[in-house]
Amino acid sequence: MELSQVINERRSVREYRSDPVPDAVLEQVLEAARMAPSWANSQVTRFFAVKDPAVKQLIQEAVSKWNPALDALGQAPIILVAAGIRGKSGFYKGAPSNSNGDYAMFDVALAVENAILKARELGLGTVLVGIFNVGKIKAALKLPAEMDPFILTPLGYPTSNDQFVPPRKEISELLYWDRYEEK
Ligand SMILES: Cc1cc2nc3c(=O)[nH]c(=O)nc-3n(C[C@H](O)[C@H](O)[C@H](O)COP(=O)(O)O)c2cc1C
Question: What is the three-state SS of 19-76?
Fold first, then answer.
């Protein structure tokens, strides 16, 4: 599949079959994630592939009842949690390199984007889930203090590839030439 086709056809998938994801397929997804750029190659992203029903249950309990992706987390055979180690990315000699502070979330996002695009290429679905109780996810995964979960996604085979395409802004709305101006 062409990269542009993968980018254009990736959609948030909120209904999954229960078919397992072979470990070799998961490995390809993580291989793509591993190759993402990161601040000074600090590589602070960590993934948790959760299959254990008890841990999956704890993760679902950390997500709001009204979250449209809640059921998907139970349906898919794997919940992938992307976490980042704080205090390394974006830092030089212990101090933030710019006023944006910690770049861990940025680096995790780059790795996750690679992962979800690769997943799409392999016929897997994903939907990023950001509305959750951070403390509950940390407790469920027994994360150390310096590691924070930034995003979750179910990982599995979609029941259908016929997802609604949410409209996107035109490039003219996103792009400024040379300097900011009111649009
Ligand atoms: C950081 C982030 C957090 C998100 N959190 C949720 C969420 O909690 N629940 C959900 O159903 N979708 C969530 N989404 C998915 C977006 O709603 C979705 O990407 C957007 O509507 C565009 O649709 P598409 O992914 O099909 O192109 C999240 C997406 C991002 C990037």
Answer: CCCCHHHHHHHHHHHHCCCCHHHCCCEEEEEECCHHHHHHHHHCECCCCCCHHHHHHC
- How does pLDDT run across 86-138, given as a tens digit for each residue? 999 999 999 999 999 999 999 999 999 999 999 999 999 999 999 999 999 99
Residue 83 DSSP class: E
Enter the tokens of residue 81.
């949690």
> Which residue segments constitute the domains of the chain, with CATH numbers given?
3-161 (3.40.109.10)
Average pLDDT, the chain: 97
Q: Which atom of ligand 1 is nearest to the CA of 69?
A: 11
Contact 26, 155 (CB under 8 A): yes
Task: Indicate the top mutation candidate among 60, 127, 160 to test ligand 1's pocket, ranked by most ligand atoms within 8 A of CB.
Answer: 127
Strands 147-155 and 78-85: antiparallel
Question: Ligand 1 pocket by C-beta < 6 Å: which residues?
Answer: 11-12, 67-69, 127-131, 151, 163, 166
What number of H helices and E strands is found in the chain? 7, 5
The amino acid present at 117, given as its one-letter code, is L
Helix H or strand E segment including 78: strand 78-85
Q: Name the pTM for this structure.
A: 0.97
CA torsion, ordered 50, 114, 143, 101, to nearest 10 deg:
-160
